[in-house]
Amino acid sequence: MAPDQIFKRWVHVALVVFAISFVYFLYADLWMPISTQSRVLHPVANISAKVNGQVNKVYINNNQSIQQGQLLFSLDKEPYKIAVDKAKLALESVAQTNHQLDAAITAAQAMVKVSKANIDELKLEVERVERLIKLDTVSRQLYDKIMSNYQSALAQVDASKADVLKLQTQRGYAGGNNLLLRQAENTLQNAELQLSYTDVHSAVSGRVTNLQLQPGKYAQAGNPVAAIVLKKGDIVADFREKSLSNVKIGNKASIVFDALPGKVFAGTIVAIDAGVKDGQLNADGVLADPVNSDRWVRDAQYMRTHIAITDQPTLLETMPSGARATVQLHPGEGLTHWLGSAQAYIISIIHYIY
Asked: What global pTM score does this model have?
């Protein structure tokens, strides 16, 4: 065979291989989508104090496993103990004030009785003077003086009743329904609650990581000072929109982890995100800003999917957050499923090399 014929044959072979590869690529992209942009993600709980204070003691170490409710660190308690003592003194002061008000109310009520008794006596005197003035046996001046005293006594009764009402209003309800008492008890409870917040406990179970907290650091309420990675994990994989055109929730998947070369794990699609950041519009009063581009072919949009492992559900608990993976989806059956599985196994073998 002549050299030009050999060259021509190799060109034909190359064209056939290229055509087959091109068709396979188009078919695989629709029915055997694969993504190397995949990773393991664990929820991360940020730990912060609920009150301000200087860190007094740290009870945990970096990368230590944490159980829910475990004591993590404590703040200086002295300022909050003083606040509790102050609230207790205020509560005692309210109790004393209520006793004083009770005594004042009793005295004011007694004054009302005295004033009423004085009225009864003056009323009899007024009736007697009225009879005598009709007989012209007393002067008009005496009559006016007695009537004035009687009116003053009536006014004194009203004033005494007003004093009783004023004191009763200040005193409020008796027992546990007293307003001043409830306010003082509420202040004490709040001070005790603030004191309890100086011991910071974990609300979740997991493993603390990148711990930089040290005694002496001043912790601000609400500012994270530690992070706990939860055991529950999720595999997220980003695929081009076109690659997901035939994919549905519940389809099977094959997962290959960079840290576990040679192994392929079975999974299933549990969720597909409803959107991405570029699809979010903020109602901030600013007009739309269309993207201008002179590119004929723009970059494809990637959508995020969530994969769950079905053959070893607890595997993700042992893997760090951010571990890289490759995800092969199987929206098709038969030969398509077999070819997709073969791709996943080939990738798992390649991971021995890089």
From this structure: 0.70
User: Is the Cβ–Cβ distance between 206 and 320 less than 8 Å?
Assistant: no
Instruction: For the chain, list the domains and their CATH numbers.
Output: 28-42+232-277+301-354 (2.40.30.170), 45-76+199-230 (2.40.50.100), 79-195 (1.10.287.1700)
CA Rg value for the chain: 43
Per-residue pLDDT, 103:
74
% of the chain residues with pLDDT over 70: 87
Classify burial at 31, counting beta carbons within 10 Å of its beta carbon; exposed 0-12, middle 13-18, buried 19 or more.
buried
Q: What single DSSP character describes residue 288?
A: P
pLDDT (tens digit, 9 = 90+) per residue, 31-64? 889 999 999 999 999 999 999 999 999 999 998 9
User: The tokens of 63 are what?
Assistant: 């990368």
Secondary structure tally for the chain: helices H, strands E: 5, 14
Of 51, 96, 101, 105, which Cα lies nearest the Cα of 78?
51
